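Input (structure):
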């Protein structure tokens, strides 16, 4: 149980704002845990956390392979790398006013875009994607 708590506590600590440092985005915190798996953190506990949270935790803003920007609104328990997202800015750079939800895929297919990367806080602020 202590190994599970160590992973959960580290994730919570990394994603919570502290007086002495800014918080990390969920995706960045998961990457940090992955770097330490097998040495600092139990590998099975890290995998279990990623399975529960997804590789892209809820609320993460991402850039899609078609150039659109979106926010993760639902995880996919069968495939942690392919969450369900809400489009915020379409591939042409237009801000969407209606609620558009799409699934993602691991490879860019014609019907479902892939996640290229998560957006930094600077990019989120620059595009007003709060």
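Output (sequence):
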């Amino acid at each position: 149980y202590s190994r599970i708590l160590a992973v959960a506590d580290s994730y919570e600590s990394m994603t919570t704002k502290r007086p002495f440092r800014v918080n990390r985005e969920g995706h960045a915190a998961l990457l940090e845990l992955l770097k330490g798996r097998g040495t600092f953190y139990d590998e099975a506990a890290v995998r279990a956390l990623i399975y529960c949270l997804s590789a892209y935790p809820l609320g993460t803003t991402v850039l899609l392979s078609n150039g659109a920007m979106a926010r993760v609104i639902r995880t996919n328990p069968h495939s942690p790398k392919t969450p369900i997202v809400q489009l915020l800015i379409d591939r042409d750079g237009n801000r969407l006013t209606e609620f558009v939800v799409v699934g993602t895929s691991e490879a860019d297919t014609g019907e479902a875009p892939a996640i290229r990367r998560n957006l930094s806080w600077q990019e989120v602020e620059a595009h007003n994607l709060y």
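Notes: The chain has a mean pLDDT of 89. Helices lie at 2-15, 26-35, 43-53, 121-126.
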